[in-house]
Design goal:
By secondary structure, the chain is α+β, with helices and mostly antiparallel strands. Helices cover about 35% and strands about 20% of the residues. The strands form three sheets. Strands 2-3-4-5-1-6-12-11-10-7 form a ten-stranded antiparallel β-sheet. It has a two-stranded antiparallel ribbon with strand order 8-9. A two-stranded antiparallel ribbon has the order 13-14. A hairpin with a 5-residue loop joins strand 2 and strand 3. The longest helix is centred in the C-terminal third of the chain and has 17 residues, at about 285-305.
Length: about 350
């Protein structure tokens, strides 16, 4: 458990920006498989390192954009194993990734430093810590033979305020609809994404040689956008947003758990009858609180999801009753009859196993 996709940025002076651009052009022009082109948004894309999982984009100064910037989006694990699409980068891999990143940029650095006019310009593009992190995706692969059951339950989880449900376009109905094999929520700061890793690979990389290893994997991912990474910097008291800070194992774990609790909760899954019985038999709860909890439980069961039930709840205590259910170890999402089981442990138990040192 640690992280997956990373987006880095670096602000440049104009001379260094164009010197880097010229070096990219020089190296790219020698390869038929690579290109540099202008995008519709006015940026410059270089595909030179795309095959290694590193996407380079340059954004030049303009009337609307007052900085010269370079952006890099990459999957660090691809530097270690080019065809690796399943494993997650560990904090312990950081030094190796740093060395491989530097090595990959050697041809570009050679082209940059060979120009006499660049003699006094600094080439930092091969140094990971010279960049600032814009996006960072801590994630974890959870292994379970009950993957399909869990995905069905997870798709019925909570949608907190200020989050939008991720949708995909259905060409048959010609409408947007929720994912069949995933649950995706998005805010201005983060994307919380739970999905079937095997299904994703079948769509994107059907010829991936290790695809069968993903058959029982649920990926839980928190895509931290620039607003979130800025907040993390200030809340932690960091002097900058270098990748060293973000790749801390404990921080990755805490980020995933924070959003998992917020969306999924920590209560186990029960049938409606079993959950109702647990509430009614709890002598520590008042009759009023029992009735309030049951009202939410039955509404979620009827609407087939917490996020679907929320608009139909009459009152202001919906979230309070969700918290009460969780405190008693009961998830508001109940097990459908067709599962043929009465109880399923919360996936957080498997998630915590992934956090333990190997």
């Amino acid at each position: 458990m640690s992280f997956h996709t990373v987006e880095l940025s670096m602000q440049l002076d104009s001379m260094t920006f164009w010197a880097f651009f010229d070096a990219l052009v020089k190296v790219t022009s020698k390869l038929d498989s690579a290109s540099i082109y202008d995008t519709k948004s006015g940026a410059i894309r270089c595909t030179l390192l795309d095959d290694l999982g590193i996407k380079i984009t340059l954004r030049k100064r303009s009337e609307e954009f007052h900085k010269d910037m370079v952006y890099i989006v990459f999957n660090p694990q691809r530097l270690i194993e080019e065809r690796e699409l399943l494993k997650i980068t560990k904090t312990d891999d950081y030094m190796l990734i740093n060395r491989l990143f530097k090595k990959i940029f050697e041809p570009i650095k050679k082209a940059f430093t060979s120009k006499r006019k660049n003699k006094y310009l600094k080439f930092d593009f091969d140094v990971l810590n010279a960049y600032q992190v814009r996006r960072f995706d801590p994630c974890v692969n959870v292994h379970t033979k009950y993957k399909d059951w869990y995905l069905e339950l997870l798709k019925r989880a909570n949608k907190p305020n200020k989050y939008e449900l991720g949708m995909k376009y259905d060409p048959i109905s010609r409408r947007l609809r929720p994912y069949d094999d995933a649950f995706r929520l998005e805010s201005k700061s983060v994307v919380f994404f739970i999905y079937d890793k095997y299904s994703q690979l079948k769509r994107r990389e059907p010829d991936y040689e290790d695809i069968e290893q993903a058959r029982n994997i649920i990926r839980i991912e928190v895509q931290c956008k620039n607003n979130k990474t800025n907040y993390m910097k200030y809340s932690q008291g960091w002097s900058n947003k270098s990748l060293t800070h973000f790749s801390d194992e404990e921080m990755c774990k805490n980020t995933i758990l924070f959003y998992y609790k917020k969306v999924v909760g920590l209560g186990d899954y029960y049938t409606l009858a079993e959950a109702r019985s647990k509430i009614l038999d709890n002598n520590k709860l008042s009759e009023k609180i029992k009735m309030d909890m049951l009202e939410v439980l039955e509404l979620v069961n009827e609407k087939r999801g917490v996020w679907k039930a929320r608009p139909y709840y009459n009152g202001k205590d919906f979230d309070k009753n969700l918290a009460r259910l969780n405190k008693e170890g009961i998830n508001a999402v109940t097990i459908p009859a067709h599962f043929g089981i009465r109880h399923l442990p919360n996936l957080v138990h498997e998630l915590m196993k992934e956090f333990m040192p190997q």
